[in-house]
Write a structure and sequence with these properties.
mainly beta; Thrombin, subunit H; 6-stranded antiparallel beta barrel; 6 helices; 19 strands; globular; hydrolase; Peptidase_S1_PA; signal; Peptidase_S1B
Length: 372
């Protein structure tokens, strides 16, 4: 059976519906200060696609609501990198009439995966469950059409007509911007038939890529100059394209508890390095979740970093399940709890505060970001 057709059928499977839906998360407002000019970047860092961190019980339970307001607002400050290499730093205040932090209630189910005693890093768990997306019928179909390539070797997801969400480590190593960020570009797949090549959905011919320059890049201060174990929760960046695109994009949502995701599943499509030129789709259940990270065993390889992790989220306005970006695929993490080592592939959760920050980056004002 053709894998592309199988993928399409999997997406059409009946979903698990719940009679009770979580109330929409309260989203605080971000109040930006006047940007401060910084020295130009040296672009001295090398891109590290294979991103791995370690975490123990102290960082696993670390949540937004546990941090002091000063610490959190400092991490939510952000750098803006412009196409000419200039940079600015924007400090922010947070206005929140609810409980500060406002993290979506998350059940800590206790690390429930079986202990893994051998420290062998695995990004493919058991049989490889990834599917190549091929042919016009799928590459240009939503949601696969929202996945784009990043010129530094990563993946991104279209979240507006001019913005791409990706992983921060694809453009910045925590100390400096990577060399490839100097002329950062976003790649849109063009199926073979649009290139004038006659093909069909079983074609193995690889699509071409149309590259678009990035106008500016935004990275949270929580990622910059922080130890990786702490800052993995801020491993996200937003790229603004020089020109708007015409493809469908996927809207953002505050990440609900996995219990409020249809089928308890997450999905993402990316450009895994072991399948060059191919868009690769996968889905899997959420294994574990902290306030800032989603732990899962979705098969993934370097190159998939920055993929938009999405789930079927209940939309109260539309009264139906909608695919929405709830996280960004970051990489791999060793989780050490009670002396046991567990390895996971990890995505950064979009919390209410991160949603407010990314939404401000997209819209440029606070009024459009009060609620989803």
């Amino acid at each position: 059976a053709n894998l592309s057709l199988l993928t399409h059928l999997l997406l059409q499977l009946p979903l698990t519906f719940s009679l009770l839906h979580a109330p929409p998360a309260h989203v605080p407002a971000l109040v930006p200060h006047t940007p401060t000019p910084l020295t130009r970047s040296h672009f001295s860092a090398h891109t590290q696609l294979d991103f791995t961190t370690h975490c123990n019980s102290s960082c696993f339970h670390r949540g937004e609501q546990e941090e002091k307001r000063e610490q959190l607002t400092e991490k939510l400050a952000f750098e803006t990198l412009y196409a000419d290499g200039s940079r600015t730093l924007t400090m922010v205040d947070v206005e929140d009439d609810g409980e500060f932090g406002g993290a979506h209630p998350t059940p800590h189910r206790g690390p429930g995966a079986k202990p893994r005693h051998k420290r062998v890093r695995r990004q493919i768990y058991g049989a490889d469950g990834r599917f190549n997306i091929q042919g016009d019928n799928f590459l240009l179909d939503y949601p696969f059409s929202t996945a784009v390539r990043i010129s530094t070797g990563c993946t991104g997801v279209l979240v507006s007509q001019q913005h791409v969400l990706t992983a921060a480590h694809c453009v910045h190593n925590g100390k400096d911007y990577v060399n490839g960020a100097r002329r950062l570009r976003v790649g849109f797949l063009i199926p073979p038939s649009i290139n004038g090549t006659k093909t069909h959905f079983t074609s193995t011919k690889k699509p071409l890529v149309h590259w678009v320059r990035v106008k500016r890049t935004r990275v949270p201060k929580g990622w910059i100059q922080g130890p990786q174990e702490v800052s993995m929760e801020f491993d996200y960046a937003l790229l603004e394209l020089r020109w708007p695109h015409r493809r469908p994009f996927m809207r953002l949502s505050v990440a609900p508890s996995s219990d409020d995701l249809a089928g308890h599943r997450i999905h993402f499509s990316g450009f895994d390095s072991d399948r060059p030129g191919q868009l690769v789709y996968r889905f899997c259940p959420v294994e574990e979740e902290s306030n800032d990270l989603i732990y899962q065993h979705c098969d993934a390889r370097p190159g998939a970093s920055g993929s938009g992790v999405y789930g079927r989220v209940w939309d109260n306005n539309l009264e139906r399940w909608e695919r929405k970006v709830i996280g960004i695929f970051s990489g791999h993490q060793w989780l050490e709890i009670d002396g046991e080592n567990r390895d996971y592939n990890v995505a950064v959760r979009i919390t209410p505060l991160k949603f407010a920050q990314i939404c401000y980056w997209v819209h440029g004002n606070r009024l459009d970001c009060v609620q989803d």
